[in-house]
Design a protein that fits this description.
heterodimer; A: alpha+beta; four-stranded antiparallel beta sheet; 14 helices; 16% strand; B: 7 helices; 33% helix; 28% strand; globular
């Protein structure tokens, strides 16, 4: 690339302007890397959910809750191999930034249904036997320095105790791991019986949803319909879907994550497009006599246009590469903080490649008009300027 | 047959409804190895004539043959390629690229050749040595005097070894002493290196360095003197 020194020198002719533009592009691609990776984490949660499990949720809103009495009826539905319930606890451990999901569950049935969760049988026995027992993902326990036997205080926000207190205390009796990192949404689990007895009597017997294992995943649609038909005319109708669909619906209730992220990124890139186009147009205007000199020396119209276009591509490509790299570092640094809330967040090869692709495309779009102007430049007229 | 052959060359420009006749039926032959000064008042057509010879412009009518190539009708791309091989340009205001060092400026025409990086650098250094600026290779134009910048421009003009140097008021921006140095350098290039030089100038003293002087007035060749 013989002309590279020429392109590079031209790029940094007005250093302040170039650096300001470059920083804008870097900021845009830093945002791109972060947002796409976060959106990817949502998608990853959807993709890894088991296909042989169904989630039974309140038909209209996830805040309604369902009576635990539904469980027996669900277990009786043809095609259901097993079922349990889960309740979103919310709550805060020490401070609100220590976020991780917490669920009161039926210990043994829960671990039977989530066979990808691996726990020591003795610890599972203790979890079932001790009413205030809790188990945690091993990495979560490590993160907070919990040891077996530690008492973990959680401040309730959704669920209060019957005695009016909001402080819940659990004894850590075990830890569990997830086979092959199959799911990243492992949660802090504690004994449902203790939770139900201790909470305000008016709220007892209410759970968030039911998890159902089906005998034949191919029949999941029919089984879902049968479960929902059971409760169609009750005051607590249900909506049953695979875990994958259920996660999607949960995300949809939060908002269309992909659409939100893409809308933000579109606005950012549109702004960057205008900003960089302005920089390149100004740069071209200042250099008209110099481009004319190049043509005088024998540079063809096409070659001069290519020099201008490559300058734009280099600017955007450089900004894009640095921005993507910075977002990779940022995710490495912030990943453990966000993991509890969003699951595992990582910069995938697809995000990296699409970021670089967008940066280069941006460079071409931005540089196209100045390049065509440079191509059309008439030497004799331009030399007079 | 000369290295430059112009026959019945006219160049008109249209401004709105008005047609301005800049050159009118010029016939001109310049022999290889000549050093020709083109003189005349402003607007007489000197620079237009120079642009036609240098392949930067096309005549409205007539024939322009330079270095054995008929330039009339050549595409923009072919003209550019032809210029890079046959013509070296020297301008009044040097027209160096301010962001590049002297060496990089001189190297520019060689980017259009197949030469490798080392050979390009070597050739640029030779050209800078010829013009007496070997020790300023790393300096940018802003760090050089006007005379030195014009020397760099001359080095850039000769680095690809063209047969013809086209100079548009090469001393117009320089003081007398520096102008004489530049003219001596052009004479040297003509005499020792065999370059054909066509120079537009307003300055009779500059023209006195040429072997021939051609006077233009209102687009016509009015006098040619040895």
């Amino acid at each position: 690339m013989k002309s590279f020194p020429l392109i590079w020198s031209n790029l940094f002719r007005r250093r302040v302007r170039t650096f300001l533009t470059l920083f804008s592009i870097i900021a845009a691609f830093l945002l791109f890397g972060l947002l796409r990776s976060i959106a990817g984490a949502f998608e990853m949660g959807v993709n890894v959910a088991g296909v042989d499990r169904l989630m039974v949720s309140p038909k209209y809103s996830m805040v309604d809750g369902l009576p635990i009495s539904h469980l027996a009826q669900i277990e009786a539905v043809e095609g259901v191999a097993g079922a349990t319930h889960m309740t979103w606890f919310g709550g805060t451990y020490q401070n609100p930034t220590n976020f991780f999901p917490k669920f009161p569950v039926q210990p043994r049935v829960y671990f039977d249904l989530y066979s990808e969760y691996i726990i020591d049988p003795l610890q599972l026995d203790a979890f079932e036997r001790i009413r205030t027992a809790a188990v945690a993902p091993a990495d979560l326990a490590e993160e907070y320095g919990w040891q077996i036997g530690d008492r973990i205080p959680i401040e309730g926000d959704i669920w209060l105790r019957g005695d009016g207190s909001d402080l819940w205390e659990f004894e850590l009796v075990g830890t569990y791991t997830v086979r092959d990192d199959e799911s990243t949404f492992a949660s802090f689990l504690f004994n449902y019986d203790y939770f139900d007895e201790a909470r305000i009597p008016e709220t007892q017997g209410i759970v968030s949803n039911f998890v159902v294992r089906v005998t034949d995943p191919d029949q999941a649609g029919e089984i879902s319909a049968r479960i929902d038909a059971q409760f169609e005319n009750s005051i607590n109708p249900t909506r049953t879907a695979t875990e994958e669909e259920s996660n999607r619906q949960f995300a949809a209730q939060v908002g269309d994550i992909g659409l939100i992220m893409n809308s933000i990124l579109s606005a950012v890139f549109f702004t960057i497009l205008l900003l960089t186009a302005n920089t390149m147009t100004q740069a071209l205007r200042e250099r008209i006599p110099e481009l004319a000199v190049l043509k005088t020396l024998g540079f063809t119209d096409r070659r001069v246009a290519l020099l201008v276009l490559l300058e734009s591509v280099l600017l955007c490509g450089l900004g894009g590469a640095v921005g993507i790299a910075l977002s990779g570092f940022a995710l490495q640094a912030l990943g453990p903080e966000l993991e509890g809330f969003l699951g595992q967040i990582e910069m995938t090869a697809a995000t990296t490649l699409s970021g670089v692709g967008i940066a280069l495309l941006l460079g071409v779009i931005v540089g196209l008009n100045p390049a065509l102007s440079a191509r059309r430049l008439q030497v004799v007229e331009a030399l007079r300027k | 047959m000369g290295i430059v052959e112009l026959q019945q060359v006219s160049r008109h420009f249209t401004k709105g409804r008005q047609t301005v006749e800049v050159l009118d039926n010029i016939d001109l032959t310049i022999e290889e190895g000549d050093f020709l000064a083109l003189m005349g008042p402003s607007g007489s057509g000197k620079t237009t004539l120079l642009n036609l010879i240098g392949g930067l412009d096309q005549p409205t009518s007539g024939s322009v043959e330079v270095a054995g190539q008929q330039l009339v009708g050549l595409s923009s791309r072919k003209l550019a390629q032809w210029r890079s091989r046959n013509i070296g340009f020297i301008f009044q205001f040097y027209n160096l690229l301010p962001i590049l060092s002297a060496r990089r400026n001189v190297e520019l025409p060689l980017l259009l050749t197949r030469l490798g990086g080392r050979q390009r650098k070597r050739n640029a250094d030779v050209a800078l040595t010829i013009v007496g600026l070997a020790d300023r290779a790393r300096h940018k134009p802003g760090e050089l005097s006007g005379g030195q910048q014009q020397r760099v421009a001359i080095a850039r003009a000769i680095v690809a070894d063209p047969r013809i140097l086209v100079c548009d008021e090469p001393t117009g921006d320089l003081d007398r002493e520096t102008a004489d140095e530049i003219l001596d350098l052009l004479e040297l290039l003509n005499r020792e290196h065999g370059k054909t030089i066509i120079m537009v100038t307003h300055d009779p003293k500059a023209a006195s360095h040429a072997r021939h002087t051609l006077y233009l007035d209102k687009g016509n060749l009015v006098r040619e003197a040895a």
